[in-house]
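Table 4 source record.
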Amino acid sequence: MKYTRKLAEFCSNLTLETLPAEVVHKAKLCILDYVANIYGSLELETVRNIAAYIRSVGAPENVTALGCGFKTDVHQAAFINGTTAEAIEAQDGSRFGGNHPGVAVIPAALAVAEAVGAGGPAVIEAVVAGYEAANRPAAAVHPWHTLGGFLPTGTCGTYGAAVAAARLRGLDADQLLNALGNAGYLLPLSMAEHLMGGYTIKVVQGGQAASAGIMAAGLAGAGVTGAPYVLEGSALNGGFAKITTAADPTLSRITDGLGETYSVMDIYFKPYTACRHTHGAAQAALELAAGESVDPAQVERITVHTYGIAELAVGKGVDTTSSFVSAQFSIPYVVAACLMDGELGPRQLTEKRIADPAVLDLANRVAVKTDEELNKIYPGKTSSRVEILFKDGRSLSRQVDDPKGDPRDPLDAAALAQKVKQFAGDRDSRKLDDAINIILELEKAPDLNRLIGLI
């Protein structure tokens, strides 16, 4: 089976007219969510420092660094716009691949669309095709790719960004196939070690994937060729799915149901600013706190029962030296913050809040354990159960199987519009409303100039 070629041909031939209405709508919701995350991430000092550095390098002012107040070249703009989509850790994601396609695909699509003057219909096509190219390879190597030490947002996201850029640059099917091949050579190593260690370089994975994907497509348009079997490999066993996976990949996931099911429909949206593996515990803690006042001084211990990857990825604690990345990937911190603050948003990611002795004290009483029954139903369900034992012997328990934002408990257009406004802070509300309306009617936009000006 020529998996890479079949995927490339499908992505090349996809048209707005043939897409189901619900797929078009979901793609627009992904873009709406993306804008919310840009606003939220710009509240982080690390992100502002990255944008300032990129601006200082200097480049032709062709494409907008969204929300940053300046223009740069298409690659640098995509890098910044992917970083701002990623950093707040409230980005969209696919539970079947463990990746976050929007932070790579959408910044690549918007940057190239602005550069070439493409309109809304072409952007929607590019986003849907890009999600297919990012999510299907990610599904083929999940969960072994992540367990082997890679972050699929950076690796597989580059394939999605390359396809989105290729579509908007008008490349034909053979050139798009070369874009995928080139992407496999240029994609970042995207080491999970940086995330697990709490190092803030983690936040650039979407931006690096977006920028590398644009380069891959641009080189394909210039006649540079890449392996047409980059995903599955050849007899040399050197394909992406083989060399980045500790177990045999499930290559059939790359092509199963192409044109019948669209991976964008499996995308979840995040109501909380933390790794999705924390969300079941976060929601359970918030629901417990809403139902009964939880006095931290009276808590003996808290146990979070969850699935194996969640314990591995987000089971660790935090201390006074921890970064916001560490906090985003810590169930103990997330549960403590939710119980004490009744929310989990940008405010919970400040250095002051993370280092608060009261929060840390409660977080130190949170234990995370793998529950074999919950592990068996992952990734179909991402279940977590929070159990609070009080010093007087009382206990509270709440289990969440499908955290909010999942397609089975979705965030709709109204909820995502509210997320935009929440994360936008004191920005002009009229401009926000106009941007939201343009995105929700994106197929009518002749170009992106007005939308980009509003962001």
